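Hi R.,

Here's the chain you asked about this morning:
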Amino acid sequence: MLGVQLAELLDADPPGVAEALDLVAGFDDTLVHGLARLGEERAAALTALAGAVAASPLGPAVAEATGKVAAGSVSDDHLAALAGARTALFGAVHDARLADLDAALGRTREAWQEPPAAAPEARSMLAGSRSWLRELAIAGWRGVGHDLISAADQTIETLLAEPGLRRLAVLLDGLAAELRASSPLATAERLPARRWADLWARALTLSWEDDVTDLSGAAPAVESVSGRLLLLGVDVHEHGTAVQAQVHAVLEPADGAPARLVRTSVVAAKVDTIVGPALWRLLHGHPVLLTALAERRALEVTDLPLLAGGDLVWHDDRATAGESADPFATARIQLAGALAPPVPPLERHPVRIAEPVLLEGYTTDGSALELDGRTLPLDLDRLPACGPLTPALVAASSACIGLLRWDGGRWMVQPLAVQATVKRKPVEVHGGDWALGITDPKVAKAEARAGDAVAVLRERAGRLLRK
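And here is the predicted structure, written out as tokens:
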């Protein structure tokens, strides 16, 4: 990314973005205090939300919902309309910011094509989730107690039993866990109002009975692809009960079609005591992918399903590790011309923007990059603890493969790999370098002293299963 491109991106200020975010904040405040306690100010916030989508197909439904909720009548239909309006506003902000990024980078993006609808799921199971989400909205986050949080347990257990409903189940389980961990909510000093409203709105949208798509949240595959996969970097998402390694890459299709930007992810369940480099051992079922990350190799893939949103469904047995492939060389040669994927409708949220870029020739103070007089903040909180990439290495870097994100009203870059100078020697460090094991002797020694938590838990689980 050049300085002129960065300047164009940072200077872009689409009209209406700030106003849209203010409207969302007003609605989120009603969820903090609950729809059962609407005062004039919060009723006005709902009216403003309805006004923002009045000219859209959502307009009549949201206007009706606003009036009914203000009068004390709260139904699933009304909440679905309000959640839809909130989602639409965030979608508009997402589209404006992503268009700015594509324009600055000169990146071409595929248009969204609605894939064939999947078979409907068992809708009778969704009534419980909608009922719980309705009770949350009525009570408000400040009014949520232990009994209301626990009321979700049976619904979550039922949903988890259906493979097509597990994404919704995990979403509800995560929201319930966060509410439980933050209790007592009535006296909590601060609440993550936007995050919880995001989870609430997404869950409500997924559980709506008129939505005939697969509620797993994954669009059906639109094609199978083969070719050479050139990895750019890995973004590790860690939660107390799960870990996901999301790999960003460039696919060179075997049929000679233009190169395209893709993602692929592998996931494993975990417990909160498994942290740091031990996370990679949870993903041992994907040795080919881990080898490519650790040894920086290209992958030859055959007939991998490609979803409409640009995600490859990973099958380790359909990939073989090939020759060495320098991610920085891939970024310099391929990134500018690769075709970017479209964004599925329910994924259109500004916090979801994570576009791979190459930044070179900058200076940094450790908290931001400066390129041709323009400053781009660093998102160091996202650096994974399971890899060798550290804030100190980022501070010593002069080139970076990263993900451009728009969060908190500003652009930031999350480093995935850096080229730096350490003790007068050039080094190159990637977030996936420890995918096959720790390569730093000091860190390896410390991990050995701490013990192998994964091995211990597997042994205990095996002992229980043998009983």
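One quick note: DSSP finds 15 helices and 13 strands in the chain.

Cheers,
M.
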